[in-house]
Every structure is written in C-alpha cells, then in structure tokens.
C-alpha cells in the first residue's frame, strides 16, 4: 500500500526526525528536531500538522493504558556489552544524522507512509457490548480478525508501511453481543525491542537501501555477535497474513515463521508462541499459505534471499503433518508474496521482482524490477516429491502481487489463474513517476502447448484498480464466478468493494461514501450447502476521515447492500489481510 503516491511537502527541513507521537485520537504529530513547523498533504491522508521540537523515544506502554519513555526491563549486560552498546549506539546516531540530512524518498518517508489513518494506535483490551445498526446475519457467529502494520516505536529514519509491527484487530460476534480488541503480536523482535526501550532491528524496506543499509546490517550483526540482541529466533514482524489451521490462528509475514495467537473466550487476543509446527519447519514461510477446502491440507512456499535453494514448496496434512521440502530451482532470489492452488496443482509465479544485494553497494534498494528477466509460472503437482516434473510457462510482462484463485480446465489443457496485474511492478518498493495500475486479469496457461494468454476481465471503460480480496474460500482451487475485491482508489486507499463476475466482467460496487475508506473485503458464505456461490456476506473495516471514527460493515454479497454496521470504540488503521473463525472452529482452538 504505498509507494507511488503523490505527496506535496509544504515545508522543507534539514534536521533529523526526533519523535513521532502515535495517538489514538484524530491527529498524528510528527516532531522533527528544530524550531519550525510544517504541513503535509498526501494522497495517503488529509492534511497533517507537523510540530518541530525535541523529544525522547515515545512508546505505547506495555500495559496499554499509559505512555512511557523507558524500557519495560533493564537488559542484563556485562561491562563489556554495555561499553559496546554505547559505542554502537553512537555509530548509529551518526548514521541517522547523516541519513536525515537528505530528503527521504516517499517510499520510506514516515511522514508519508504512516500519515493519517495509516498511523498506529495503542493496544486495546477487549471492549464488550458494542453498539450496531441494522441486523447482523445469524450465520455470522464467530470472530473476524484482520492483520496490519502498527509500529510500536517511532521511526528514527526511513520507514515503509510494510515495516510496522504486526497488530491484530478482532471483532467477536455472538448473537446480539459484539466485542472488539486489538493487540500487537508479541514477536521475538518486538519483545527484545520492548526490553531495550527502542527499535534496534533494521526496517527491511525503509532502512535497508544504499550504503546506509549496509552499515545498518553491520550494526545489526555486531549487536548479535556481542549478545546485545538474540538473532536466533527470527526477525519477522508478523504483520501481513492470517490463516486458521488445525485449531490455531497464525499471524505471518514472509520474513519469519508464523506466530500463534489465541482468541480468548472473552474475545481478547494473546500471543502464544513463534510456531514451527512442532519443530517440523525451520525456514521462513510466506504470508499467503493456501488451505484446500476439500482436503483440509495447507500448502505453502518458503523463499530465501541469500542462499540456495532460493525457493521451497511444502504442505501440511489437515492434522498438521509436514511433507518433505521440494526445492524449486531458481537462478536468482525472487519475491514470491503469493501463489495459487488448483485441485491437483500448485501454481508458482516466478516474476521480475528480485533481490540483488549488490545494488546496495551502488546506493540503491536490494529489491528491484529486473526488466531482462522473463516472467513465468511453474505448474507442480501438489503431491510432488521433487521438482523434476515442474512445467514452466512463460507469461511476458506480468506481475501479480496477489492471486485470487486458480483452477483446471481439462477440456483445453489449461490452468486458469485470476490475479491483479500490477504496473509498474516495483512501485510499492521504489519511487516512480508512473501512476500505479492494478488490473484484474485472467491468465491462461496451456499445459500442452506451453503458451500463455492474459486478458483484462473488466472492460477498459469500467477499469478500476483492484487489490486485496478473495473468492468464496469454500471454492478455492475450483472454478469460481465471483471475486470480491477492494477498489484501491485513490491509491493506496480503498474507497469501496467490487463484486466482479469473472465470466462477463460485470461489476457491482459498494462504495463507502465521501471521505470514508476501508480495506480488504472478506467473504463469509451463509450456508456451506448453498447452491449459490455468492450467497453470503462481506465484512470490512471502514474509517471515516471526517469524524475519525471506525466501524465494521457487513454487506449482503448477493445485492451488495449494507446489512449491519458495528461502531468500534477506537480507530482502526488501514491494514492488510484478515480471516474469519466460526464459533464452531473456536471451540476446537488449541
């Protein structure tokens, strides 16, 4: 959500960002060392006032009710470690001072990336008996949980929206009783930073670019070697995806293992542990695993940006037993945020967004768009023991950050993939002048001829940016007619929901209204036995930028009319992906 946004800075500055106040009310105050003040205008947010003054690190406290400026615990370091920590902190201070003498790119300027309702909020313990209007459908009895980035500490330099600590927002519905809670996922990274009272882990996108990024990596590993931080339990933020599998709610980002989070009977949230599937997995796992609705199996990928194998495929039985890894041969480390499954295959996109750390030596970002690389999709049997039978089909100039579904059409020997094709591909990570487009597309991969085709599903006259969404998950991997997607306009905000007929291209819209924006729509079928694919409801968080109030809206998927709206006790920032867990599933939670 991010980068190619138009932003006008109505003031200049030359000194370092010294503090950011993360409020739960209607404004975000960013303080920069010095006497001046300025105003930001950005497509990310309404105008935001910046106040320039000195202030120490600001933290939302561990008990969620106070704001404190000291660590939760004092680290137990010896004399040598304390001296080393002071020296490394001094080096980091010089580095930050040097970095912030130059204007930050919009793709990692915190004044753009976490402005307005992208700004973080404090944790909220469960609030019961929420007010709602309309009638909540009887079939919705459970909890809707959505993930998002919510940095606990101020960015001391560059920060990208994707860099924030993971926070879950949960609305529990039990008949006419509705509750809400939001909690940070207690990753190993976050726990250590809370002990130190400051951010010490590098921001993967906001800070790791150019020579300063190399210096930050050196500082990071020096702190690890000296025992100032523990690098052995991952560095992930768990802020992107969510899946409920085998009695566990898993929060994940592709830079680490998942984290298990428990939904308490009260509706509150509790981080349980960094979850390695009972010591079965020791590598990272992408944030979009796929659960087969028929077999109950979970399919996943793991990619490595440093060493071979750069990509591995594996699956879990419905009882959580992992298969052996299948190493997928790739020439270079490639970003694989998402993939797809059909009834019998996994569909693996090998696209043009790659990792080249040598670009940092040249002063650039390690995440780049390689125009010379050929885009292709790999088709592999779900039951594969190795990659010898993978079929690669080239699909020129296609970059799907997300895929919504895929299925087999045996009569034509084709695999059909539904995804949003994004141009320019690197617009989320690198600054560019070209306007971002995200076009819902049908990609056909012919297993017999090895050829591919791609077409826009919606006519050019009705074309809108569509990103974040889903199909009826009970039909995942099988042919579907409808997709429910976020209307990502003005990018990166979401102004409504599009129900798209994948056959005719017809679009039904539900718009949130003036200065009201939401996020990913989540479809819940009314009845598992219903013969109508769209017989169900769509849930989405919506924020009103005029009143600064947030709510959960429930929309009838068949007619796209509002059924009910739950008033939430605090602001819900724009975020990423979510899931719904029924009360029956919660009853078997581990």
From TrEMBL:
Q: Name one GO cellular component term.
A: chloroplast stroma
**Residue spans crossing the bilayer:** none
Q: How is the cofactor bound?
A: Binds 1 Fe(2+) ion per subunit.
* Keyword Oxidoreductase attributed: yes
Q: A GO biological process this protein is involved in?
A: carotene catabolic process
Residues that coordinate or bind Fe cation:
288, 337, 402, 577
Q: Can the keyword Transport be found in this entry's annotation?
A: no
Classification lineage: Eukaryota, Viridiplantae, Streptophyta, Embryophyta, Tracheophyta
* Requisite cofactors: Fe(2+)
Q: GO molecular function of the protein, one example?
A: carotenoid dioxygenase activity
Question: Mind listing the UniProt keywords for this protein, alphabetically?
Answer: Dioxygenase, Iron, Metal-binding, Oxidoreductase
Q: Which family does it belong to?
A: Belongs to the carotenoid oxygenase family.
The organism is: Heracleum sosnowskyi
What name has this protein been given in UniProt? 9-cis-epoxycarotenoid dioxygenase
